[in-house]
Amino acid sequence: MTRTTYPALATGSVSAAGCFVSASLTPPPIRIDSPALQVMTDLTRIPAACIGANALVSEANQSMIYRGVRMLFVVDEEKQLQGILTASDVLGERALQAVQNHGIARGDLRVAHIMTPASRLDTIELAMVTRAEVGHVVATLKACGRQHAFVVDRDAHGRQFVCGVFSATQIARQLGMPLPTGETARTFAEIEAALTAV
After folding, report:
1. Which homologous superfamily does the CATH classification assign to the domain defined by 36-197?
2. pLDDT at 26
3. pLDDT value at residue 102
4. Which residues pair with 74 in a beta bridge?
5. For the chain, what is the mean pLDDT?
6. Which end of the chain is more exposed for a tag (fewer CB within 10 A), N or C?
7. How far is the C-alpha of 135 from the C-alpha of 120, rounded, in Å?
8. What does the alpha-carbon distance between residue 150 and residue 122 come to, in Å, rounded to a whole number?
9. Between residues 161 and 28, which one has the greater pLDDT?
10. pTM for the predicted model, two decimal places
């Protein structure tokens, strides 16, 4: 293989008249009638944060902190979805119940003990999302009683894959609200109120 030689680019110096740092474009404010895609995490552009079912829960917690996320996809060696693990699962009652139910030390708790299995996840077809508005997403999450909903599509072989995620936390962040905590119904009431006010 021929090795390409790259010449260095021409360089200059900062202008004596002054130089400014470019400001990033401010995304448009989210409204209840904004396109749903504006609040979807697009997994075709942002890599999904994944972990194996056999990993320790403490490792999963560190992974979430390191990546700055509140949810991990639990996958097998072929990246097939096994379930999800959320920060609430790790830090809440589910972990404590699993320790008692399985009679193991908290340090030995595995992701498989507390994850939500794939069979219990709520999905929305991408074709539907492209025609939906933020209000539809909030209503769907509220109706399902979930903090997350997963957008799915099919590849060229007809296999289903997750291509996006809706998160109550992300919607709240885009609205400039404090991150949702506590009771799910209250969370959505707060998000709906903020969306209506925008």
Report:
1. CBS-domain (3.10.580.10)
2. 67
3. 85
4. 51, 83
5. 86
6. N
7. 23
8. 6
9. 161
10. 0.76
